[in-house]
Amino acid sequence: MTASDPSPKDSASDRRDTQREKMVARETKILQAATKVFAERGVDGAKMAEIARDANVAEGTLYLYYRNKQDLLAGVVGNFWRNLTEGAIAAMADAESIEEQLMALARYHLNALLDQFEVVALTYRARQRHGEPEFQLAQIRDYVKVFDQVIQRGVDRGYFAQDINLWQVRDAFYGTLEFSARTLHLRGDSYDESVVENLMRMLSCYRTWSSQTADSEPERAGDERASAEYVFIRSQQDIVERLARIEAALAKGNS
User: Fold this and answer.
1) FRET partner for 182 with CA separation of 20 to 30 A, picked from 3, 90, 107, 221?
2) For residue 58, which phi and psi values (nearest 5 degrees)?
3) What is the pTM of this model?
4) Residue 207 main-chain phi, psi, to 5 deg
5) How far is residue 55's CA from residue 36's CA, in Å, rounded to a whole number?
6) Closest C-alpha to 35, from 122, 101, 135, 107
7) Which residues lie below 8 Å from residue 87, measured CB to CB, with a gap of 6+?
8) What is the architecture of the domain spanning 74-204?
9) Contact call for residues 234 and 209 (beta carbons, < 8 A)
10) Hey, what CATH topology would domain 15-66 get?
11) Distance between CA 61 and CA 82 in Å, rounded?
12) Of the candidates 158, 58, 153, 176, which has an alpha carbon nearest to the alpha carbon of residue 96?
């Protein structure tokens, strides 16, 4: 054996790595096939034999990875949430400001919902079918944590108020996108950027007044959209100030 020849130990390690890679690749194909069949035929209509055929593996091979159809369904759902989370992080990678990060996440989420509408519906049905409140909860928490971390960075930077109610902002964000995706899907429409723009205007009410004024000055932004947002924010400030004056007048009159 020469110095350049691999040792028996190295060869055994390489074989194990190759075998592991093949197993991972095969499982990926199984999950892709199962996702497609479940989405098209539903859980009850899906057959393990059809999934195996689509994955180009023997039916018995499926059971080496998943005990039964319910176990495979859980694998599909878990894989969906993992991919969604990884995609969200990647989509925000180049965004610097809090607003850019939220817009990137919103665009990503809306596109993901529209592109995988049947798969998303499958995850909802799977959770109801499973009958356990904790099912999918860990994966969902990992995904929404991406949004939560953006909001926390916004609080740390003074972009959002310290007393912001996180769960309400999260529900407003994801709820708006999910209902909008459903409407677009039912209408047969494609992605609509105005959904994200209107969502960002709505979220501006959670920002601190200082960040709203500083970030929305027309002179700094220099475009028509910034001017519109500035007017919108100023109108909110005017309303709050008027309400404060009214409350003060009422309090004085009752004293």
Assistant:
1) 90
2) -70, 150
3) 0.72
4) -80, 160
5) 10
6) 122
7) 108, 112
8) Orthogonal Bundle (1.10)
9) no
10) Arc Repressor Mutant, subunit A (1.10.10)
11) 23
12) 153
Q: Would you state the structure tokens that stand for residue 149, as one six-digit string?
A: 């971390």
Query: What are the structure tokens assigned to 223, written together?
Result: 């475009």
* pLDDT tens profile 172-188: 999 999 999 999 999 99
Q: What is the pLDDT of residues 49-95, one digit of tens each?
A: 999 999 999 999 999 999 999 899 889 988 999 999 999 999 999 99
Overall size of the chain counted in residues: 255
What is the pLDDT at residue 20? Answer: 83
SS (H, E, C) the chain: CCCCCCCHHHHHHHHHHHHHHHHHHHHHHHHHHHHHHHHHHHHHHCCHHHHHHHHCCCHHHHHHHCCCHHHHHHHHHHHHHHHHHHHHHHHCCCCCCHHHHHHHHHHHHHHHHHHCHHHHHHHHHHHHHHCCCCCCHHHHHHHHHHHHHHHHHHHHCCCECCCCCHHHHHHHHHHHHHHHHHHHHHHCCCCCHHHHHHHHHHHHHHECHHHHHHHHCHHHHCCHHHHHHHHHHHHHHHHHHHHHHHHHHHHHHHC
Distance CA 216, CA 232 (A): 10
Rg from Cα positions in the chain: 25
Give the domain ranges of the chain. Answer: 15-66, 74-204, 208-255
The tokens for 101 are 């990060």
